[in-house]
């Protein structure tokens, strides 16, 4: 069987991380999400909390513009992104795996063994999951969920040339309203087809 790298982008509250874990478990391959932060920390010397904070800072200007300017002037989010990109590429070269978020679909855009997936869900289900499963206690949960998506879109659209959540950017878009297990099964079937 061929190597497969599955990248999973997801709307906040869609259950994308749970789906990614199930896909990795079903295929018997490595799952990368928070472990990427540890790997980047080891490579850069930044602390894990510093990297998490840098991931959530809203970048300004354009990443491509910053690349054309001096490397010494790279902002912290740019430095963290470059380190994450290296870790993601190393993981993809080393083994079959599932990688959640962090622009992995863009970073691995030239990798022919990459299955790019985006998980979405109706707003009411995302709000319910935020409240019941994530324990979010906000006065207006729909607004909170929307802000989380905007932050993800801002991060992605800054570093990548595509647009976050735009279906043409992905090989497969899955609506998790069909259920976590069913959504994972759809992705596993697509991955197995690619691995033939």
Explain how this protein is built:
The protein has a single domain (5-195), classed as P-loop containing nucleotide triphosphate hydrolases (Rossmann fold), CATH 3.40.50. 54% of the residues lie in helices and 12% in strands. It has helices at 16-27, 34-44, 48-56, 63-68, 76-94, 104-107, 123-132, 141-159, 180-195; strands spanning 5-10, 30-32, 97-100, 114-120, 172-175. The protein has a 5-stranded parallel β-sheet with strand order 2-3-1-4-5, sandwiched between helices. α1 (16-27) crosses α9. The longest helix has 19 residues, at 76-94. It starts with a strand and ends with a helix.
Largest sheet: 5 strands, parallel
Going across the biggest sheet, name each strand in turn.
Answer: 2-3-1-4-5
- How would you sum up the global shape? globular
SSE string = EHEHHHHEHEHHEH
What count of helical segments does DSSP give? 9
- CATH top level label: Alpha Beta
CATH homology group: P-loop containing nucleotide triphosphate hydrolases
Helix/strand structural class: alpha/beta
If you average the pLDDT, what whole number results? 87
Distance between the termini: 6 Å
- Structurally, the number of domains stands at 1
**Topology-level CATH name:** Rossmann fold
Low-confidence stretches: 65-73
């Amino acid at each position: 069987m061929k190597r497969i790298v599955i990248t999973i982008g997801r709307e906040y509250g869609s259950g994308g991380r749970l789906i990614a874990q199930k896909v990795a478990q079903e295929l018997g391959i490595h799952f990368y999400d928070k472990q990427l932060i540890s790997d980047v920390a080891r490579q850069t010397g930044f602390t894990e909390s510093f990297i998490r904070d840098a991931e959530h800072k809203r970048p300004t200007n354009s990443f491509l513009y910053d690349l054309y300017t001096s490397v010494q002037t790279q902002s912290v989010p740019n430095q963290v992104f470059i380190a994450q990109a290296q870790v993601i590429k190393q993981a993809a070269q080393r083994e079959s795996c599932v990688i959640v978020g962090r622009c992995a679909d863009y970073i691995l855009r030239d990798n022919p063994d990459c299955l790019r997936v985006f998980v979405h869900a109706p707003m009411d289900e995302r709000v319910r999951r935020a409240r019941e499963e994530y324990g979010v206690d906000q006065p207006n949960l729909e607004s909170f969920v929307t802000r989380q998506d905007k932050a993800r879109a801002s991060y992605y659209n800054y570093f990548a040339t595509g647009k976050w959540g735009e279906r043409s950017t992905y090989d497969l878009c899955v609506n998790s309203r069909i259920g976590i297990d069913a959504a994972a099964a759809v992705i596993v079937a697509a991955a197995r087809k690619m691995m033939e």
